[in-house]
């Protein structure tokens, strides 16, 4: 019985093709080797498949080759170009070598025939080559993972599209799918309102929801969606050492809703966050008692005869103040610190001056981005030309071009963002100055969270109340004073400053000055 052989040719990346591992070259060398061995090739596998550690035992080409050899006992050689074309993982490499050896087949390396000898030198050389191949493979995986992490840190999601979203022109950035987004969003909120996941799923399917494959949603898949942080704008990848809670996608639910949903799914007791701050007492925990240093909180005072009054009560000394009086006193502070239209115009001019100084740097940044964008387009065009000349490597070229498109889209987005800043600045300045000019009117329309942020920004030391029910603020922001560190700025003139009404003047520390309005 004449001996026969089979051949394995594999290329997994464009870089390997550039290193001389093209399928055409491999096919040529295994053919010459079969002629030298006098072992005609019965079957050949030519694939573009990666060799990944831990995944090679189930590699289709190797399993098929092994089964073929078991049936065709005349096959005595598995011809491969070199060690790294057979395997790039040490454990699986020797496992398959032994498996083929057990059925009387030798894995033969055509480009390095000295490795086929049964000598210690050949064994050591072979080990070093497979070790080098595994190290190279691991390095490539690390680089690929680093690129994905960089995308996620920038708010993108370079992974399969979650249900309820669809692809956009920007890789890794998905937009709401009009056929599914609202339906899933409704199901999320129904569960938050008290429905079980099974009941919410039944309603979802009854509304006509279909998965991207055209099927009804199954409970197991639905539960995975409910636990996926992507829908709350959170990018949290299992096994990664960082998270990004500010993804660029349109959120289906808020972060707080997502956390409560997870509590509900796990059976934990839920907290109603909306009741942590009573809207009837918007200044709760924002005013400090000067007697004991504790905060004032809202309370309802009852006299036992059916009468009740809204008050603020000090948590330390239990001193109570009528809510109406406290709010009127805060109104006085807010009105006294409102900036005039004249000073609003001055503030706008000052911000525009600062912006013009910053803009010169922004222009240089855009030029750098534009050059980077042109360079990426040139490289992409060269790859397209190379792909036309090497059609057998089409898939590898397309993979590299796809990664390059990610970079191009990211640079284009950075350019758009840098241009958009101008429009955003105008809108921000107009809103901010308008708020400061009518601060007392706008203040009470803020949510508790926004009111607290404004308090920290405009009144860094917060509000204080003394035993005589006088409300004041020990410190106001330079924004309201229009102060500057530049001595030449006329706005720092003391002629424009007055004391805030209701300020306790017994202590220098408590004296506050603002602009005359």
Give an overview in words.
The protein is an alpha/beta fold. Among the domains are: 146 residues, Rossmann fold (3-Layer(aba) Sandwich); 111 residues, Alpha-Beta Complex (Hect, E3 ligase catalytic domain fold), CATH 3.90.1750.20; 97 residues. The strands form five sheets. Strands 2-1-3-4 form a four-stranded parallel β-sheet, sandwiched between helices. Strand 8 and strand 9 form a beta hairpin. Helix 7 runs antiparallel to helix 8. The longest helix is centred in the last third of the chain and has 49 residues. The radius of gyration is 35 Å and the shape is elongated. The protein starts with a strand and ends with a strand. The C terminus is likely disordered.
Per-chain topology:
Blueprint: E1 4-10, H1 14-18, H2 23-37, E2 41-47, H3 60-71, E3 75-80, H4 83-86, H5 90-102, E4 106-109, H6 120-153, E5 165-167, E6 174-176, H7 181-192, H8 197-206, H9 219-226, H10 255-266, E7 287-289, E8 296-302, E9 308-314, E10 320-322, H11 323-336, H12 341-389, H13 394-437, H14 439-443, H15 448-458, E11 463-465, E12 471-472, H16 478-481, E13 497-499, E14 513-515
Parallel strand pairs: 1-2, 1-3, 3-4, 7-11
Antiparallel strand pairs: 5-6, 8-9, 9-10, 11-12, 13-14
